[in-house]
Fold:
Amino acid sequence: MREVNFISGGMLSAVGDLEKIIAKHKIEIEKSDAFIGLYTKNYVEEPLCLAQLGIAMYLNKPIYFLIEDDAQVPDKIRKVMDGFAFWSKDEKDSVLRATEQVVKLAVERGHIKKEGKK
Structure:
């Protein structure tokens, strides 16, 4: 297993370049051991986020999410998650703590290697 982890999220600004952008992200997701997505309340409205999730599913990657505490996650997405942790935009370092929780869970499940191990 490789130690590369890929975290998604963000706005898609160049819709016209969607194919190029998705191709680039596909390469990154292919190199990753697991997909770790930043799930905000607007996640399902972002084409890039949905494309990344679809690529991760197609590549049969373990799927983890850092879920914003007020986000509603559809049942279909919950069914494909291997794990998750909640974060709050109102708490300092909340995303960092959630990331640490998800990485620990992914390591315990053998989806990614511990840091420093090759």
